[in-house]
Amino acid sequence: MDPQELKITAAMAMLELDESGVAALAGAVDQMLEYFTTMAAIDVKNVEPTTQILAASNRLRPDGAHNNNPANLADAVLEQAPDLEDRLIAIPNVL
């Protein structure tokens, strides 16, 4: 990449580069372009698109009605609380 193009690109990205910074950026850009060229040469026509590298499936439970009474559920939760104040879970002060 031309050094003048690098300076323009750096200015558009609001980067202030001295000559050593431009040289370092030129090396990094050349390395990226070489990598992109290598990637473009790879034949991927028969590769299935993926969103992740590991095969995954959703763990779904059957959707069905449950006989959970909200009052019974609240009582069960409150029974497990370490400290209560008038059917409210008491939380110690942090400060």
UniProtKB/TrEMBL annotation:
A single GO BP: regulation of translational fidelity
Keyword terms of this UniProt record: Transferase
UniProt entry tagged with the keyword Transferase: yes
Protein name: Glutamyl-tRNA(Gln) amidotransferase subunit C
Molecular function per GO: transferase activity
Coiled coil: none
NCBIfam families: gatC (TIGR00135)
Top-level division of the source organism's lineage: Bacteria
Record flagged with keyword Transferase: yes
Name of one Pfam family that matches: GatC
Lineage: Bacteria, Pseudomonadati, Spirochaetota, Spirochaetia, Spirochaetales
